[in-house]
Request: fold
Amino acid sequence: MEESRLCQWSVIRSLLAILQWWGFNVTVIIMNKWIFQKLDFKFPLSVSCIHFICSSFGAYLAIKVLKLKPLIEVDPEDRWRRIFPMSFVFCINIVLGNVSLRYIPVSFMQTIKSFTPATTVILQWMVWKKSFDWQIWASLVPIVGGILLTSVTELSFNIFGFCAALFGCLATSTKTILAESLLHGYKFDSINTVYYMAPFATMILAVPALLLEGVGVINWFHTHQSICSSLIIIISSGLLAFCLNFSIFYVIHSTTAVTFNVAGNLKVAVAVMVSWLVFRNPIPSLNAFGCAVTLLGCTFYGYVRHKLSQQPGTPRTPRTPRTPQSRMELLPLVNDKQDKMYL
Reply:
């Protein structure tokens, strides 16, 4: 009886973790699109900078004040030599995502972001000369095919938004790969990652945002009506962006790798549906079919990676070509589940 109750509670906890993750993720995406489209605040660098500032304060509050997670100490030299490069890629990743949201619908942007597994494999194969099982390459076929079909049939296609989303995938893949080589020896969770990277990202982005968008933001303040309510929405999107990272930590520890992969792909479907209900952007049948093929391909890719990782002698995740120098560096940093973090 006791084991049955524990099993039921485990299922309920996993379901609640997934639902709150979906809620934060979809809300952040919809709010960002709303800011660009409905509030006419067409300044993706400034929005990203606000997100980083909110995340910096949120992570400090969670670790230093509320003590929700213990602080992972990092050597001062490592902060600049290892974390700063990661923060730069982290910054590019978020900015490109917001830039793409300004120019293309949420449904199209989310479908392109599903291309990340393919870009990760291709980068590791081309740059780090990694070899992959044929099943991995086979699982990429429906992902690439679905993206091509969706792009061809997208009625609101914008080349600038498409390129921003595509390069965002490359940035996400680069961040995941670099994590293995730059942050070896540190078992980061999502909150500690935000704690160290968000301040660097704010510093990196503040000057470009001020130079490129400062005048536009000032003009928006002078011409836009309902400034107070609009600012509440913009700042709330930053607070929710931090909450999203915190929710990812919870869902990672409440589900298995396969469940997380499937839930992540279903989350994209939920985001597409909600965005259609809110913005009513037209989605042709072939476009919807291409999105479905892409998501099924991502699910198959996750299943293949998980199956191969369970085979004896197979490493859990593809590693960068670096030989650990100590036992400490053999500790895992990222796993299959963390590839889908908002960061």
Notes: The radius of gyration is 20 Å. The chain has a mean pLDDT of 82. The chain has eleven helices and no strands. The longest helix spans residues 2-37.
